[in-house]
Structure formats: structure tokens, C-alpha cells
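Anyone else keep sequences and C-alpha cells together like this?

Example one:
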Amino acid sequence: MNEQTKHPTDDLKDQLAFLRRRLLQRGRSSRKDIDDLIQEGFVRLCRYQHEQQVRVRDPVAFLVNVVEKVQIDHLRRAVLTRRIFSDQPFEQVDCADTASLPEQEAEAHELIERIERSLAAANPRTREAFLLHRIDGLSYAEIAEQFGISTRAVTNHIAKALLLVDNELLRE
């Protein structure tokens, strides 16, 4: 196919194929997640061009850079989510990131504040059950005994708290 018969979308398809290959070669992206990451990258590219009112000279390079940052954000969020939803008491979960940058620490503090605000809006018993389990390490049975309710009720309280935290994480 020569340049005169080439369809305009062929160039975009070629660029997308190149972008996928480049991201896979860098080894940070899996085939399973790559299309979602590229889509998020395109959204950010469009937003950037709209806000800056300037065209990006090399959209593929921009997308590779943005997609890698998006993937790092997803990985960080997944680690934080695993830590929050872990069955281990808070003090046993390794939350320290020795290589964190000041902006990462600020983001982590902001996220903790958001989670605390979402829990503050919860029913006091729901909040207390969640904190007793996650911070103090009490079992559902111990919390049930302390509150004088069934373990099923404790399960429901903690599930409500986890739902609040999960919704707060998804709001980003």
C-alpha cells in the first residue's frame, strides 16, 4: 500500500501498535491492562492539549510517559488497597515506603485524611468496629462480645466501613 492509497486511520493504528509494543518492551505493562492504560493516557493527552491549548509534538512519547505514570499510580493504589483491606492488624502491615518522595508522602497523608473523613461520616458503631478490628487487632468475635451483638452484625458493620473506604478510593 503506497502513501496515496493509505487510509487516515491506518496511521493511528500503526501508532497504537507501536505504542503497545513499546510499553510491553519496557516490561511495566501487562497485555491484560495495556488497553485500559492507553485509554487513560489518551484521556490525559486530550485534557492536557485542551488545558494548555497546544498540540503535543510527539503524542506516542507523551502517551508512553503518561501511561507509565498511570500504571505506577494504579500499582500504588493496589498496594494501599491491599494494606487497608488486609486481615492483619494495622501495626503488622508494612506501610512504610522507604523510597517515598515528599509528594508521595503528601498524597498518602491526603488519602489517609480522606479515609478518616469517610469513616467519620459512618455510623459510630460501624466506625468503632472497623477501628477495633483494623487498628486494635480485635477479632469479630471479640468485637461482638464487647458490643453485645452477633458476629454477623460485626461483619455487617465492618463491611459498611470497607465500602465507605472503597468508595473514597474510587473517587480519585
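And example two:
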Amino acid sequence: MASLGTLVNRFVGVRDLAEAPSAIWTRTESPRLRPLANEDVYLFVKAIDNGSVVRVVDPEARRARNNTMATGFVAAMLVIAGLVPTAYNIMSGFTIQHLQEERTKLEKQRAQLDAAEADLLNPNRMRALAKSLKMSEPEPQQIQTLEGPRAAEHTAVASNALPLSASGAAVR
């Protein structure tokens, strides 16, 4: 199969270099590679001992470095101080959302428990349960009514006093 170069040479009519006169032959490119860039540069590495060199202390450079560090620290603190309230508000919002979801869940759970309690305390269910356990209503002579202070005298305040003993004095 012919290459592209062979086809071009056929149409353009390039002559073989072997048949060409010597003047044309010398002007053609040699098959050698072109020289690499900076090929003629030689780098020599010499070991240098800087042990005897003493660095000169520059107080202005030290002051400038310290000022730059202090300015950077202050700038970082200002950025942090500006971002902390925003981060706190975001975290508080997440907490509030979580608490609202928990409240809704607890309200649903309480409603379910109230409904279950109402079912358990239903008088018809209690009669059926008593009948299944072969219980009967108490006789009138078995019922005792306890007399105590009237409800108006009691308030809804909690008392830390100990109950009265048989003698009527509080046990301490």
C-alpha cells in the first residue's frame, strides 16, 4: 500500500536524490537530528559551606513580621466573631425544629395513651372483666364511707410534713 508521501511524490514529480546532481544533494537536509535547546550549556554544581556565615538580625523585618501575624490573628478573630452568632442561630434552629417534632410525636403518643386508658377504664369493660373473673358487687354492709376533712379545706399545695402518727403528733 502506498503512503501519502509516495502519492505526493508521484504527482509533484520529485526526482530521486541519487539521480540528482551533487549540488542539489549537498543542499538537502541531513538525516541527523536537530540540536537540542541549550545543549551546549554545562552546569557545574559546587558544594558551598555556609557554616561561617552569620545572619544579620533585622529588627524592622522582625517588627513587620510580628505586625503581620498580629493583624492576621485579629482579622481571623473578627471573622470568627462574625460567624459564631450565625452558627449559633443555625444550631438553635435545628434544636427548635427537633423539639417541635418531638413535641408532636409526644402529643400523638399521649392521645393514644389517653384513648387506651379510656378503653381500659370503661365501666362496661370493667363489668365484663369482673364477670369473667367471677367477681360480684359488694353488699351494702361491706361498704365503708370514710369521713375526712371537707374538700374545701384542702388546697392543691404540696405538703412536706410527715403523716400524723397514732398520737396525733408528726414523727420527726
